[in-house]
Amino acid sequence: MSLAKRIIPCLDVDNGRVVKGVKFVDIRDAGDPVEVARRYDREGADEITFLDITATHDNRDTIAHVVEQVASEVFIPLTVGGGIRTLGDIRRMLYAGADKVGINSAAVNNPEFVRKAAERFGSQCIVVAIDAKKVSQPGEAGRWEIFTHGGRKATGIDAVEWAKRMAGYGAGEILLTSMDRDGTREGFDLPLTRAISEAVSVPVIASGGVGNLDHLADGVIEGKADAVLAASIFHFAEYSIHQAKEHMASRGIEMRI
Amino acid sequence: MSSVAVIDYGMGNLHSIAKALQHASPPDADVQIVADAEVILQADRVVFPGVGAIRDCIQALNKSGLSAVIQSVAKTKPLLGICLGMQALLTDSEENGNIDGLGIIPGHVVRFPDNLMDSQGNTLKIPHMGWNQVHQKPHPLWNKIPQDSRFYFVHSYYAIPDDASVVAATTEYPDAFACALAQDNVFAVQFHPEKSQAVGLQLLNNFLHWDGQA
């Protein structure tokens, strides 16, 4: 008997529709978020994450409305990320029925915001999302930096140091995305995942690059992730969440099946 | 007709709990999020939720006068404590440098030690977050819930009651700890039934039908 590793499908939501871009271009429509969330819940998702990818320039009420609808019929933890910048944004998402919020650029711009958010709402609902890119040369020890603006803007901040700092400020969980792998279907950046997971005491969710079910298992076994997040392999019904869980269990990972 | 009061003291994921209770309720049940002492005292049953830090929780309860209301409910009608709402029922907690709780269930709340390891030598993360198995002891609130079902947890502290006979279920992380307590008409859980899908809704439904007897 032990704690199960989690599978978290992620819904990238643009103007109220689920979409998935490959390296943030070539966006394909993957459906109504409420429908998709319902299906994932039936298939045994352990949590669901909504990433509002239009948050910076569009109407913010759309995502709150989606969360509200999902929360009234899906009873597993729900996380909302994208454009969370103020305590008011967090309150609004929790009020709509979210259990956790993902904070990304706002943490980089103002690290104290994470501390305030954790003090006000509790660490259990504060997920710090880290977008990291490899900056070390081949042959060197692995080094990764934080990038913002969808991987376009370097910050010069070391990813491992940043994860430790955010956990110290009260982040209850780290959502780690490899910007090198995101959308590539080549698998997680396992050395990055492992480096972060071993550096912090809080759970780490691996994200970015899943193309098959072995990638999910590798994230846990080699990357030491506590949870794995994927989007496109589930959206287009290539694999069901249930299949993914069965596969991970067959590789010796404790799962909720 | 049955009325359920979800205590609103300015903390906690009240909306998640109210939505789950509504979903789990018979159609004629009346689920309300309330801060008003009179309404809470008149309800047929009461849910005491909570997330966040214990100091803020106890301060908010004392300031609003709801501590006394919960004390009274605990003697008279079915009461369900969830997460921090369970921890606050004990005598004290070592969180925030030792805080007195409501003292309804004698015992203490302590933190998981750092550097916990599982049987394969992997470090266990704190908070204990995710779906873990719940080993039940006989109680009507486990009705129709398979033994060792997984429920959703997120916490860094856990309860150690003085009287082991009030333990209604245990979970391992890596050692067994009390994840549910039952004392007369009070039932309390460390996990989140409102976030534990079918088994969680069943537990809420069982609570809505519970007469407060073991």
Walk me through this protein's architecture:
The complex is a heterodimer of chains A (257) and B (214). Chain A is an alpha/beta fold. Chain A has a single domain, classed as Aldolase class I (TIM Barrel, Alpha-Beta Barrel). Chain A contains ten helices and twelve strands. Chain A has helices at residues 33-43, 61-71, 87-96, 105-109, 112-121, 159-168, 190-199, 213-221, 232-235, 241-250, and strands at residues 6-14, 17-22, 25-31, 48-52, 78-81, 100-103, 126-134, 144-148, 153-158, 173-178, 204-207, 227-230. In chain A, strand 8 and strand 9 form a beta hairpin. Chain A is globular, with a radius of gyration of 17 Å. Chain B has 214 residues and is an alpha/beta fold. Helices cover 26% and strands 32% of the residues of chain B. Chain B contains six helices and 14 strands. An eight-stranded mixed sheet of chain B has the order 2-1-3-4-14-13-12-9, sandwiched between helices. In chain B, strands 6-5-7-11 form a four-stranded mixed sheet, covered by helices on one side. Chain B is globular. The interface between A and B is large, with 36 and 42 residues.
